[in-house]
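Question (not urgent): is this output format expected?
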Amino acid sequence: PLVQAETSETDTQPGYDYSQPVPQSPPVDNSYFDDAVFIGDSRTQGLITATGLYNTTAFTHQGLTVDTAFKDLIAEIDGQYYTAVDALKHTHFNKVYIMLGINETGWIYSSKFIEGYGRIIDAVRSASPDAQIYIQEILPVSNSVSNSHDYIKNSKIDEYNQLLQQLAQEKQVYFVDTAASVAGADGSLPEDAAVDGIHLKNSYCQKWLDYLKTHTVS
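Got this back:
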């Protein structure tokens, strides 16, 4: 088990091993996410609605990518619409949970995905320098989807997750092994976990949230 360092004044902790996933921690309740922002695609939308986590802030949109997070006006604040990234400048938050990547698995260059993800992390830090930043591992899909879909493959998801773990170390942010909360023994999403093999059923969304609540950094 990793030994967590004393909390510092910024989101980086001296002595913390950012190359490793966040270790298990005492469970928190839903109020922990009062000052959090979730950035993600339709899977994160499902997490919020299935678990009723409406006390948090969610800048989510179906098909959101590390590219469109800077372009699409998807977040409404006081009657104004902003991109997911620009919305951060108009929001008070102390933690950010990011899950993006499944829509980018069809991209030719993995480097473009990681570059865009890094830009999002930089934008978060610019908006709130002391906020804790959590990169969530991209959840797998079912074997039936992986074997038949044009570009969404578990092998590509695995590749991206390895790159994301490296990015977490490089940027000194926290990497959460969220796939562990829903994956089967072979690492894929169980066939009964999602109606379409991609978007989680309510019970699996709850597993995901429960994992986040037991893998925090104090």
